[in-house]
């Protein structure tokens, strides 16, 4: 991803046509987002492995005033599980029975009662693929509820958490295919622009490409 980002920056620096610059700028943002997500996932996995769980504190019962919709969460996956991380400060201090998650084959619905005088809920409907209700569970960690959705088909990768997310992302995609890997996606971007462009655009792309390759061959990069 880092090498792809460097390549895009070199080409963006040389490009002068607005259409070319717009396409390269979009590709640059996509690669930077992938790098950020990868770093976040690594941090979450590291925190899960090193965290020392604290004993649940005994707190006085509180009557929840109203229900808040959970919006702060992230997700990750392993060969067997899709893992949803829900951040709720001091959730580890409430009684275990106050944290409930209802599972169906295509949904998970967490509910946290009596946390800071409120209840917190989330509806995870229309999951991308079926899950095993019996194999799914939840764990309460420091300031976090970890929802473990057991994949019905193990060793399969989920590109999205829900079907809705998949449809939204696919609508945002350009007509060319970028689902393989970042390098191939970048090549398809340039190929599409080149094929649809006029002579001036093709000369601009050729010039930027040759100069970027020569610069990299000499080791003369600014990154």
TrEMBL record:
<dbReference type="GO" id="GO:0007507">
    <property type="term" value="P:heart development"/>
</dbReference>
<feature type="region of interest" description="Disordered">
    <location>
        <begin position="31"/>
        <end position="51"/>
    </location>
</feature>
<dbReference type="GO" id="GO:0044548">
    <property type="term" value="F:S100 protein binding"/>
</dbReference>
<feature type="domain" description="SGS">
    <location>
        <begin position="146"/>
        <end position="223"/>
    </location>
</feature>
<dbReference type="InterPro" id="IPR037893">
    <property type="entry name" value="CS_CacyBP"/>
</dbReference>
<dbReference type="GO" id="GO:0031625">
    <property type="term" value="F:ubiquitin protein ligase binding"/>
</dbReference>
<keyword id="KW-0007">Acetylation</keyword>
<dbReference type="InterPro" id="IPR008978">
    <property type="entry name" value="HSP20-like_chaperone"/>
</dbReference>
<comment type="function">
    <text>May be involved in calcium-dependent ubiquitination and subsequent proteasomal degradation of target proteins. Probably serves as a molecular bridge in ubiquitin E3 complexes. Participates in the ubiquitin-mediated degradation of beta-catenin (CTNNB1).</text>
</comment>
<dbReference type="InterPro" id="IPR007699">
    <property type="entry name" value="SGS_dom"/>
</dbReference>
<protein>
    <recommendedName>
        <fullName>Calcyclin-binding protein</fullName>
    </recommendedName>
</protein>
<dbReference type="InterPro" id="IPR052289">
    <property type="entry name" value="Calcyclin-binding_UBL-bridge"/>
</dbReference>
<dbReference type="GO" id="GO:0005634">
    <property type="term" value="C:nucleus"/>
</dbReference>
<keyword id="KW-0963">Cytoplasm</keyword>
<feature type="domain" description="CS">
    <location>
        <begin position="68"/>
        <end position="162"/>
    </location>
</feature>
<dbReference type="Pfam" id="PF04969">
    <property type="entry name" value="CS"/>
</dbReference>
<dbReference type="InterPro" id="IPR015120">
    <property type="entry name" value="Siah-Interact_N"/>
</dbReference>
<dbReference type="Pfam" id="PF05002">
    <property type="entry name" value="SGS"/>
</dbReference>
<dbReference type="GO" id="GO:0015631">
    <property type="term" value="F:tubulin binding"/>
</dbReference>
<keyword id="KW-0833">Ubl conjugation pathway</keyword>
<dbReference type="GO" id="GO:0005737">
    <property type="term" value="C:cytoplasm"/>
</dbReference>
<dbReference type="Pfam" id="PF09032">
    <property type="entry name" value="Siah-Interact_N"/>
</dbReference>
<keyword id="KW-0539">Nucleus</keyword>
<keyword id="KW-0597">Phosphoprotein</keyword>
<dbReference type="InterPro" id="IPR007052">
    <property type="entry name" value="CS_dom"/>
</dbReference>
<dbReference type="InterPro" id="IPR037201">
    <property type="entry name" value="CacyBP_N"/>
</dbReference>
